[in-house]
Design a protein that fits this description.
Blueprint (H helix, E strand, L loop, with lengths): L32 E6 L2 E8 L7 E3 H6 L24 E12 L4 E11 L7 E3 L1 H7 L2 E3 L4 E5 L5 E5 L15 H4 L10
Parallel strand pairs: 2-6, 3-5
Antiparallel strand pairs: 1-2, 1-4, 3-6, 4-5, 7-8, 8-9
């Protein structure tokens, strides 16, 4: 009998509680944006995208990871963007990817489609990986939970909020800085 991938997910209850809201600044529509580790490097700005039927790595990220195009395998499927436009593929690559909160971690192999298009994110983590990991994201809690192989719960906090100009490459710092004029007489 062939073992299905879902059978390998540890049987762990994943629940979000009031305590998970501690230190969460409430916003109406914040996405879950995490960091992960692949090819020995931490990759920030990873959008946990339950609406995506694929795991997508953008070509700029692929290049920044200094991966070789020789590692790409051909991909013949179609992917359409939000506006219905066809997205250009460069191929796909299978990479060992680690999800960690610092105390616990889980590593799995993920197939990323490499696309040549602009994005505010480095990677879109879609349903294939979320289901494979048994992961549950919560936009209200701005966290993602997944079971470790040791049957513990790994909680990964969203790091969606950039705090310095270095966190937002390509954007002029003068544009980012807010200056408030204060009248000392008031």
């Amino acid at each position: 009998m062939e073992v299905q991938q879902a059978d390998l997910i540890p049987n762990v209850d994943l629940a979000f509680r009031k305590a998970d809201l501690r230190n969460v600044v409430p916003h109406d529509n914040d996405p879950v944006v995490i960091s992960l580790v692949t090819t020995g490097r931490r990759v920030h700005r990873v959008l946990v995208d339950q609406g995506s039927s694929a795991n997508v790595m953008f070509l700029t990220t692929f290049n920044q990871l200094q991966l070789s195009t020789d590692q790409l395998r051909p991909y013949t499927g179609c992917l359409y963007g939000f506006a219905g436009d066809k997205v250009e593929f460069r191929g796909h690559i299978e990479l060992r990817t680690t999800f960690t909160n610092g105390a616990s971690s889980r590593t799995t192999s993920i197939r990323y489609l490499i696309v040549n298009t602009l994005s505010a994110y480095n990677i879109l983590l879609g349903r294939p990986s979320l289901n494979r990991l048994g992961a549950v994201p919560s936009t209200r809690h701005t966290k993602m939970k997944l079971p470790s192989l040791e049957k513990a719960v790994i909680t990964i906090k969203s790091d969606a909020f950039a705090s310095t100009a270095a966190d937002m490459p390509g954007i002029d710092p003068d544009f980012l800085c807010h200056r408030v004029t204060i009248d000392p007489k008031v």
